[in-house]
Design a protein that fits this description.
Blueprint (H helix, E strand, L loop, with lengths): L1 H22 L4 E9 L9 E6 H7 L8 E4 L5 E6 L13 E12 L2 E12 L3 E8 L1
Parallel strand pairs: 1-7
Antiparallel strand pairs: 1-4, 2-3, 2-5, 5-6
Length: about 130
Amino acid sequence: MKKTLFALLAVILVFATACEKDKSSKKTVVTINVKNGSGINQSGVDVYMYSKTVFTVQGNDPFFAGKTSTTDASGNAEFDIKTPDDVLWTPSNTSEELYFGVVYKIGSVSKEKHVVITVSEGDKKSSSLVMN
């Protein structure tokens, strides 16, 4: 009886350890730097993240953004891409195109800028947007 119980506990421990390894993922981070037309970093600007599908259908519309991050004093907005909330990394899906955009006004003219970044699990990428 003790040997059977010990064997059962050993099997459970092996499965529990294997499951924990599957849940771990590499941190994926995208940083977007926002500047004005004069090249000065802009703080307090909302940057929106979209999947390729959403952006293709809806465009740079903040209502449909998957995530939003506000730029800090250095003009940087940071996005932690978490699985499976933002991207489901699988053996057949090892990279994803994500769209990052800003919507703003210059005078009374509404404008938008966006950038497309292809990320894979564990990437640390950055790009910039110039509001001009």
